[in-house]
Task: inverse folding
């Protein structure tokens, strides 16, 4: 370690270091401080102790807006991530089959991932229109009930949210968002395809000699060897979907419509800050979000030793 | 992850391990791919229909007549070229800032030894996991204090301070460059900047291209940034201007979809032309965007 390098190193990373202090560390500290303040941007922040957190706790206990935002966020993140594992692996396995024109299928399945979020949101709002949309049209043509999608507060995985006389109309706005996110799953496909290609060929030969069919090869060879990648994707997917904003803002008219069914933490926080100018409350929510993400990540790492191949 | 996936259509580079699948499975693959592509086909076809045909039942797939003038009308109705100009300025500024700052920082983190390096690199990784909501409000006020609110600089300037994800990606690549090449340049009297400029950057061209591509696409698509920092419609980029157009012309589906197609096509073309770079960026580092 030369003295020259000791000087040159910090100099070269200085742009990032300045950015770290001004655009990350200072904001990090300031938002923590403001979460204990009342602050409307117009007057100076005023210390109010635990008041903002108290309000969050109260709303949580009484099933207020914050409780709904937390529930919506959890629903969206868990559904997205779970389905992305199933759909991602399923599609990647199909795309690794030896068929003529494999390259074309791979390219076509990836294309939705490069569609700008704004354009994809606008497109899906039309596709999922309850009356004229293509998706309901397709459902009705096979005599399935059309769904409410972005106009409905129902959530398919949460029976308590179904309307009383739903008659099979159970998919609502959050499910529409999940569908949209699954459509743009291309990045995950690339990662799963890479992982599939890295599985040693010989393992399948051994399994075949042992008399394993396609299904058992998948279950006993492919799936266990994919678990480290699945783990990585679940952690990143959760962190990512908890922070999702643009598509939610657009399909919910910037308000979490209908009836706060798509009001996630990130949207609620944004509105509290820049619509209500309630910076203290918004900052407190940001810190709850951070703790929430940390807890889930730690929990995932702890459980990983039970299901991740060679993990722990 | 391995180099076997440099190409999404990796038939040439990739060992073909699977056995041929039954015809029924192939059919299933075709149907799934078709289902994934139908929304895009629908978007393009509908953008070529007239308003009456869109509202008419029963639903017809083919436009009749084909209204190519939808595209001209859409461009005329929204201030298209102004938005496009803003988008291009943002993309150029962001790509330039990102390349300059991230390559410098990545070099400092990969090819120089200094006390505190690994600790700071740990901090860099940690910032990648920090939700943007935590720093959003004070960051907004910092930008405002700098007098950048409602200026494109609000979105460009932060890019000159590096972004953790790209620094990480470039560092991974810089570490694969043989130490001897760097040593030779140093013995020849190159300063560290000289080594970076003459040895490392030319060798790292594919990685730099990946970073430029990902940053270009991220900036082109960015909606949250303009929403937060821009107020004057004259400064809106396409991503934000298009959505504003949606909210004020919600009845004119044909124009809206034509505008969306114009906005989307460059990204699809860029992807088709640069698949290798694209896939390498994602496969070597995991997730982006």
Result:
């Amino acid at each position: 370690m030369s003295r020259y390098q000791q000087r040159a190193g910090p100099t070269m990373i200085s742009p990032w270091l300045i950015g770290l202090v001004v655009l990350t560390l200072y904001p990090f500290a300031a938002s923590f401080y403001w979460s204990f303040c009342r602050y409307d941007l117009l007057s100076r922040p005023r210390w109010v102790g635990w008041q903002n957190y108290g309000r969050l706790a109260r709303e949580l206990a009484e099933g207020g807006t914050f409780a709904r935002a937390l529930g919506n966020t959890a629903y969206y993140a868990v559904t997205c991530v779970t389905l992305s594992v199933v759909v991602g692996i399923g599609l990647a396995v199909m795309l690794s089959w030896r068929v003529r024109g494999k390259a074309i299928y791979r390219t076509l399945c990836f294309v939705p991932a490069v569609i700008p979020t704004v354009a994809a949101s606008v497109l899906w709002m039309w596709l999922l229109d309850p009356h004229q949309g293509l998706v309901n049209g397709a459902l009705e043509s096979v005599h399935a009930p059309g769904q409410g999608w972005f106009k409905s507060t129902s959530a398919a995985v949460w029976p308590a949210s179904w309307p009383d006389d739903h008659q099979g109309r159970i998919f609502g706005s959050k499910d529409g968002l999940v569908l949209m996110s699954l459509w743009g799953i291309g990045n995950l496909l690339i990662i799963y395809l890479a992982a599939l290609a890295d599985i040693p060929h010989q393992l399948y030969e051994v399994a075949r000699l042992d008399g394993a069919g396609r299904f058992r090869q998948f279950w006993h060879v492919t799936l266990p060897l994919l678990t480290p990648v699945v783990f990585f994707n679940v952690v990143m997917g959760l962190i990512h979907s908890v922070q999702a904003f643009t598509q939610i803002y657009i399909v919910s008219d910037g308000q979490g419509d209908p009836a706060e069914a798509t009001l996630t933490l990130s949207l609620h926080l944004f509105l509290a800050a820049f619509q209500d100018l309630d910076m203290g409350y918004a900052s407190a929510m940001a810190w709850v979000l951070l703790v929430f993400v940390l807890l889930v990540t730690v929990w995932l790492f702890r459980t990983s030793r039970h299901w991740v191949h060679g993990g722990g | 992850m391995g180099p076997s996936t440099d190409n999404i259509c990796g038939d040439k580079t990739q060992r073909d391990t699977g056995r041929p699948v039954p015809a029924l499975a192939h059919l299933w693959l075709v149907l799934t791919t078709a289902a994934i592509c139908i929304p895009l086909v629908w978007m393009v076809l509908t953008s070529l229909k007239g308003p009456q045909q869109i509202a008419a039942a029963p639903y017809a797939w083919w436009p009749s007549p084909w209204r190519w003038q939808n595209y001209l009308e859409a461009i005329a109705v929204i201030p298209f070229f102004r938005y496009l100009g803003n988008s291009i300025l943002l993309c150029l500024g962001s790509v330039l800032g990102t390349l300059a700052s991230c390559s410098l920082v990545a070099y400092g983190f990969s090819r120089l030894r200094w006390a505190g390096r690994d600790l700071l690199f740990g901090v860099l990784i940690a910032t990648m996991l920090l939700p943007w909501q935590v720093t959003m409000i004070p960051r907004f006020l910092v930008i405002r204090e700098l007098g950048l609110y409602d200026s494109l600089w609000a979105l460009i300037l932060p890019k000159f301070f590096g972004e953790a994800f790209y620094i990480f990606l470039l560092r991974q690549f810089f570490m694969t460059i043989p130490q001897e090449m760097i040593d030779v340049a140093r013995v020849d009297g190159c300063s560290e900047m000289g080594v970076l400029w003459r040895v490392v950057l030319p060798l790292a061209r594919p990685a730099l291209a990946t970073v430029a591509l990902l940053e270009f696409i991220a900036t082109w698509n960015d909606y949250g940034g303009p929403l937060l920092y821009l107020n004057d419609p004259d400064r809106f980029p396409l991503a934000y201007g298009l959505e504003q157009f949606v909210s004020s012309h919600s009845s004119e589906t044909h124009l809206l979809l034509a505008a969306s197609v114009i906005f989307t096509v460059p990204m699809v073309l860029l992807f088709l032309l640069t698949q290798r770079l694209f896939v390498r960026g994602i496969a070597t580092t995991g997730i982006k965007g």
Observations:
- The first strand of chain A starts at residue 37 and ends at 38.
